[in-house]
């Protein structure tokens, strides 16, 4: 009898065999998106666990074709669900511990989405304005936009908030990823590639 192992898990296990990666104290990432380029700077002193996970996600190509599926003008632009739901399901099992908040959730900062303590995984959002309420709720920014905030501002927002206020079902985003989003919400902007800036 053959043992079936998901490709995503095999990829993760294969990655474990490599030499450990040392995450720089500071690095920059360029998101090439359907709306233009966005460059962010991440610093471990702002949120070390969050930055380490971000570095890992960039290194594995996690964000390729990831949709900006929740863009609420004057609030946030959220992304980070892997294009393939099986891979996304796997990552959802690997939460990272919380970081104490160092930065405030000001306009242009990048912060993980969360549903309570120790629930950060891969989903994150750009703050489109200063959001002090998120500071009170212990959302810890780990990076900030240094180029392309105008691109962030023009990400497609016509679908608005998720259910029940808007048409996008958050549960189906988690369960089916791009198989759900792409045919039903074709105007969503997306990440073509995300790479470290040399």
- Determine the N-to-C terminus distance: 47 Å
CATH architecture, please? Beta Barrel
The portion of residues forming beta strands comes to 15-25%
- Within CATH, the superfamily carries the name Cyclophilin-like
What is the helix/strand order?
HEEHEEHEEHEHHHE
Q: What structural class do you assign from the helix and strand content? A: alpha+beta
**Uncertain stretches:** 1-7
How would you describe what is shown here?
The chain is an alpha+beta fold and 198 residues long. The chain has one domain: Cyclophilin, CATH 2.40.100.10. 27% of the residues lie in helices and 22% in strands. Strands 3-4-6-5-7-2-1-8 form an eight-stranded antiparallel sheet. Helix 6 packs across helix 7. The N terminus is likely disordered.
Write a short abstract of this structure.
The protein has 198 residues and is of the alpha+beta class. The chain has helices spanning 7-16, 48-59, 85-91, 132-136, 149-153, 170-176, 178-184, and strands at 26-33, 36-43, 70-72, 76-79, 109-112, 124-127, 141-147, 191-196.
């Amino acid at each position: 009898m053959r043992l079936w192992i998901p490709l995503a898990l095999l990829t993760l296990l294969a990655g474990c065999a490599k030499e450990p990666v040392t995450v720089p104290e500071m690095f920059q990432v360029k998101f090439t998106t359907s709306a233009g380029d966005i460059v962010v700077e991440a610093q471990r002193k702002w949120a070390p666990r969050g930055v380490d996970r971000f570095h890992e996600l960039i290194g594995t190509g996690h964000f390729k074709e990831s949709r900006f599926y929740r863009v609420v003008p004057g609030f946030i632009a959220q992304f980070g669900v892997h294009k393939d739901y099986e891979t996304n399901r796997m990552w959802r099992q690997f939460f990272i511990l919380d970081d104490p908040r160092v930065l405030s959730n000001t306009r242009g900062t990048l912060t993980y989405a969360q549903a309570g303590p120790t629930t950060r995984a891969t989903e994150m959002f750009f703050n489109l304005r200063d959001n002090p309420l998120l500071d009170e709720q212990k959302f810890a920014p780990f990076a900030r936009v240094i180029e392309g905030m105008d691109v962030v501002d023009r990400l497609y927002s016509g679908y608005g908030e998720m259910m029940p206020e808007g048409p996008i079902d958050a549960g189906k985003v988690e369960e089916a990823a791009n198989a759900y989003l792409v045919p039903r919400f074709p105007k969503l902007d997306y990440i073509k590639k995300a790479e470290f800036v040399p």
